[in-house]
Design goal:
The protein is elongated and about 125 Å long. Helix 2 (38-96) packs antiparallel against helix 3 (103-117). A hairpin with a 2-residue loop joins strand 1 (211-217) and strand 2 (220-225). It has 334 residues and is an alpha+beta fold. The protein starts with a helix and ends in a 6-residue tail after the last helix. Strands 1-2-3-4-5 form a 5-stranded antiparallel sheet, covered by helices on one side. The mean pLDDT is 82. It folds into 3 domains: 2-77; 80-187; 192-328. The chain has helices at 2-31, 38-96, 103-117, 123-140, 147-164, 173-207, 285-290, 296-311, 321-328, and strands spanning 211-217, 220-225, 232-237, 245-250, 278-280. The longest helix is centred in the first third of the chain and has 59 residues, at 38-96.
């Protein structure tokens, strides 16, 4: 850039020098009443016109170059602006993926707004985005927070950013309504799947490799206990959709008669249960079954209860499950 300006300056200086010389010759000829030869006068007059034309051309080219440079700079700024705004929209959806925004996540979004959005956005757009984030912060701290309202604020932020970079589309009221309807069909399934995955992951982490072959049947959670040869399972779930969570060990007694002395019932739905089941009151199991909201605290409390149930002596037996399996399967490793 500096080299270009220096080169243009040298051209202008050269042209100005030539113009000064030509004008001097023109004035000299006028004063001394055409003392110069006719051909010299004609050449000098032509040179004056050419020099003027060259100077004007240089100025025009200089203005055109500056305009092109401004245009190129504006394109680069817009490309960067579009990249940052699109990245922020993606970050919003990542934060909202679990349909919960913590104050820590809001702080992260605020940093991105200050760093990536405000320097590029119009003042009114930046103000609108900050107002939406403030409203989300208030709702997040509310015990009875309204997720639909929070999502509406997120839509407002996305609309503002989309308008800034000229995407053309917007999440208007009708579109938002249809999105919410679709979400209400999908979210329960995703929530349920997420809760079950979390329960299994946390439990496996606490009990290491003691539990294997996790499976779900009719919304009941099952883990094999002590390996495939023991015939013992851990069952977590309710009965008859009652919502009450039963923690119990289970073994099909027809194939595993070694556990007969510890059989809970001789017939009925609980005939394959081992004595000493425990009721958990952490949450209504139907909430999990329907994919409705469960707090992280209630899920973690259930995990801790299952771990304690596994490790502590079973009521009415006086042994924990590992000791019971070892007693009933003396030749099998637990």
């Amino acid at each position: 850039m500096m080299k270009k300006e220096f080169f243009k300056s040298k051209i202008l200086i050269g042209l100005a020098t030539l113009l000064a010389i030509s004008l001097s010759i023109f004035i000299f000829n006028a004063i001394y009443q055409n003392e110069l030869p006719k051909i010299v006068e004609e050449i000098n007059n032509s040179a004056i016109g050419a020099i003027f034309t060259a100077i004007v051309t240089v100025f025009l080219l200089q203005g055109q170059t500056a305009s092109e440079e401004d245009k190129e700079r504006n394109v680069k700024v817009f490309e960067k602006k579009s990249e940052l705004f699109n990245n922020f929209i993606e970050e919003l959806w990542k934060v909202w993926e679990d349909r919960n925004i913590s104050l820590e996540e809001l702080n992260h979004l605020l940093k991105l707004v200050a760093k990536d959005i405000i320097p590029y956005a119009k003042p009114q757009s930046a103000k609108s985005i900050l107002q939406s984030l403030n409203a989300i912060a208030v709702d997040t701290q509310n015990v009875n927070k309204n997720k639909t309202e929070i999502q509406a604020y997120l839509y407002a932020i996305i609309n503002t950013l989309s308008k800034e970079i000229g995407l053309g589309g917007a999440i208007e009221h009708e579109v938002a309504t249809e999105l919410n309807k679709l979400e209400n069909h999908i979210l329960p399934y995703l929530n349920k799947k997420g809760y079950i995955h979390k329960i299994n992951t946390l439990l496996q982490g606490k009990l290491d490799k003691t539990l294997t072959d996790f499976t779900v049947e009719d919304d009941i959670l099952w883990w094999r206990v002590g390996g495939k040869d023991t015939g013992m399972w851990l069952r977590v779930g309710d009965t008859n959709n009652s919502g009450q969570i039963y923690l119990t060990f289970w073994s099909e007694f027809f194939s595993n008669r070694q556990y007969a002395p510890y059989r809970y019932a001789q017939k009925g739905e609980s005939k394959d249960w081992i004595k000493g089941y425990k009721l958990s009151e952490t949450f209504n199991y139907n909430l999990l079954r329907k994919g409705e909201e469960l707090s992280s605290e209630s899920v973690e409390k259930l995990i801790n209860e299952i771990v304690a149930f596994y490790q502590e002596p079973l009521k009415g037996i006086g042994k924990n499950i590992d000791e019971l399996i070892e007693e009933c399967n003396p030749q099998k490793e637990v």
